[in-house]
Structures are given as structure tokens and as C-alpha cells.
Amino acid sequence: MTRFALMTAMLCTSALAVQGPSQSELNDADNATDSWLMSNKGYMGQRYSPLDQINSSNVANLKRVCTFDTGDDGSFQVTPQIYKGVAFISQGNRSFAIDATTCKLLWTNKYTPTGPQVLNTSRGFAIADGVLYRGTGDAHLIAIDAGTGKTLWDKKVNDSANGYFLSSAPVAWNGMVFVGEAGADWGVKAKMYAYDAKTGAQKWNFDMIPTGTQVGADSWKKADSTSTGGGSMWTSYTLDVDKGLLYVSVGNPAPDFAYQYRPGANLFTDSVVVLDAATGKLDHYYQQIPNDSKDYDTAAAPVLYDIDGTKHIAVATKAGYLFGYNEATKSQTFKQAVIKVLNQEKNPTAEGLPICPNYSAGTQWSGPAFKPGANNMVVVNSVDWCGTVKLGEVRLIKGQLFFGGAMALNPASEAVGNTVAYDGATGKELWRYSTPGIRIVGGVTTTGGNLVLSGAANGTLYALDATTGKVLFKSNIDKAPIGGGVATYTVGGKQYVAVAAGNTSKGLNGVKNVTSRVAIFTLP
């Protein structure tokens, strides 16, 4: 390293002194305008910013001011997380800190795996008290100094040789870090965990595949020893700070398609499980699909919102439905088909069952957003795209996919992306924006400027009028597919928009690899 480079590196490190966010800042993250602290902005998962400097009357003037290219063409499904003018980004085995106005690289952290990496996708961090927390493709939870990028501790959560990995963005709360395992499609029995934020010591765990005398164990009427479990935690989590309740979306059972090997409802798969965040004890749950036979995960985190003093949640699934629940009565308020649904009540056959959507469609890793106002609007992205599912051999082999069949996808040209707005109380559709032949799998963001922000698989960032769904702005991010989300925030009183683009994972089959990048926009 040259003397100049060494001095520059030292200056970058010394200039980046990150002490927070504090617990009070995290508690207010849903309302904050100068930050985007969690994968879904705040604990309630609303992805709503009250910022209105960029609004429906001027968004057409947005200009890109900088781009940070990671140089990696792997999966990229994060929303940039912003604190004190710094954007934190995770991808594969690397984590980055960049200036949130200039895209200048501040530091890079490189993780070296110690076991096989099952699926090397990271959907972001938890950040608290100057520390970033993220999972890895070989099922480790690591803590990184947010100021220097130095790894502080490394905790092995489970054995990745058996199919376990951590893809979801953890959540930090009251000195604990919450994270759940993924790997259902490889035949794991997933758990949700809480770890001590300072030491990495495990505080509690919860079995998403109950056994023995645990609640839900009788929903697994196991036919033979090949029955396993499943229950991945894929994305992130939602938390009710007032009640200390953690909302966890849980994915499919395994084997994915061979339902006959696991008769019963198969709790807690395809569910939202609500836990006491302090103890890990079950409070209540909502199951969206009993005995799922089509890999229709409840994958994305639910959104929590208030209507007339009563808390509600909305959650979207890969099956193409949006569900609403009243938290006061613990009852379902609506179930809306966001896209075409076909043969979901039927089980796969050896000959093949045509279904809509296929397992790469519906709502994948990006859940609904909320916009307060007259309609308490819930906005969700979903892909309309069909396929055929077939039963096949059921054999569990350590570290290999455990489908019990196969799914053929219809031509990608038939896929239609959708951004749809609903009344958060009734589930009534308010408007729809569709992109025939172009999938939409990234995150949705709503703002006080009456905007809905998102992006499509052809690399197009777009802004819609939140009242009508009318397109107000489009800009292509170098043809890099947008599988991540949009963050908006202020630095020095000026509003910025940052979007992650470059995803090449399952939800975007057939899309040309483009290196991942974060593009930052603002008004001239």
C-alpha cells in the first residue's frame, strides 16, 4: 500500500465514528427522516418515510448523483441501510460502508466461510450501538464494527453441511439480536433464535417444526421416517415495541411437493408466528397454507399498522395472496388474490398439475409497505406467472435439495409484474400498476410526498402517484435487475433515494448477470 493510500484509509476509518443507533433511535426508526435503520426501515416493517421534499409534483426531476458497484454478480436483495450519512450494504461474503451522498467507499468487510455455503444471499443487517449484525451462507451470525468494518465476533448457529444457512436481515432490540435459520428446501428443521448482542451467547430459541409436547406437534402426522420439517426464515422480522412481540414469517414444509409424506397442517410452516421477544415463548400464530404442496412460502416479513387504535398486520405469500389480520381479535380480516391463482386447492400428481403462480412468482422476499392516510394503504409487489408441478422421488440426502418432485416454469415472457394498492382495513383493491413480460420482486417504499417507489427486473426504478398509481418517474439502473429495495433519507437537510440493483437469484431466472450496484438519486 502506498503512503497516500495508507493515509487515506486511516482518514476514512477515523472519520467514521459510529456509536448508535441507540434503543430510543431504533424505537423511532419507523418515523425517522434522516435514516433507514432496518431492512424494512423500522420495527413495524412499514417501509414508509414521512419525507416530502421529493414528491409527486417534482419527482420527475430526480437525477442520479452517484453509483457504487460491488463488482459481484451474485444475488443482491438488500435495501441500503442508512445511519448518520453512511449507507451499509451486504452482499454474499462482503459488507460495505459507503458515503450516502457520494457513494465513496469507506470500508469493506470480507467474511471467510468455514463450511459449505448453501445459498449465499444476505438481505441486510441489524444495527445497534455501533455494531452491524448479519448472517452468512454457512449459517454463522457475525458482528461487525460499524465504524471500521472489523469483525467483532462470529457465532456458528448451525451446521451448513446439513442445509442450514442465514439469509434474513436480523433485528436488534434491547440488547438482543433476532435471527432465524433457512434451508427448508434442503430438509432442515428450522429454529428462530435470540443472541446476546455483545457476546453472541444464545438467549433463547423456538422450534418452527414442533415435536413431542410442543404446541403444533400433532399437526405433523408423520407417515414414515422420510418426513422432515422445513420452516425457513428467509427475509426479516417485524416487532411490536409496545407489547414486545416479534412477528416471524415462516416458509414451506419439506419435502416441498410430496405432501403425502407429511399429512396434517404442518405447523408452523407457511405461517406468521408471533413470539414474546424477551423469552421466545409462543404468543399466537396465523397459518396461511396448511400442508403446503407447492413451495408457497410465507417468506416476506409482515407489516404492522394501526387503524383507529387497533393494530393490524398484512402479509403476502408466494401463493399470490395478501392476508390481513386484526391483532385485537386475532382474526383474519381479508384474503385477497393479488394475481391469478389456479389449482391451489389441488395436490400435485406424477403426471403434473398446472398451477398459478409457480414457486418463483407471487410475493417473494419483499413484503407489503404501508402508507397512512384515508385508506390506510397497503402496497405489495407480486408476479403473475404460472407453471406445472410434478410429484417425484422422495429421498433425503444430506446437503441436497429435498423437493420430492419438480416444478416447470412457463416461459418467462408470460410473467407479469404488479404493484398493487389495497385498503388496509378491508383489502379492497385501490389501483394496480402492471409490467407485462417484466417481473417485479424488489421492495416497495411509500413516502409522505405521496409516492410509491419500487423497481423492476429490467433495471427500471419507478415512482408512482400513491393516490392513483400513475407513473411519475422512470430511470433505468444500467439494466441491472432490481431485486433489492429503495431507501429514502436526508443528509444535511437534503432528501436522497438509494436503490439496490443487480439481483440474479431464483426470482429472476433468465435475466442476464449484471454486477450489483447501489444508485443514489436526488433533486438537482
From TrEMBL:
Phylogenetic classification of the source organism: Bacteria, Thermotogati, Deinococcota, Deinococci, Deinococcales
Domain of life: Bacteria
Entry keyword Oxidoreductase: yes
Annotated organism of origin: Deinococcus sonorensis
Protein's recorded name: Pyrroloquinoline quinone-dependent dehydrogenase
Cofactor(s) listed in the protein's UniProt record: pyrroloquinoline quinone
Domain Pyrrolo-quinoline quinone repeat per the UniProt entry, residue ranges: 36-329, 419-509
Signal peptide range: 1-17
Pfam family, any one: PQQ_2
Record bears the keyword NAD: no
Sorted UniProt keywords: Oxidoreductase, Signal
Family recorded in the similarity comment: Belongs to the bacterial PQQ dehydrogenase family.
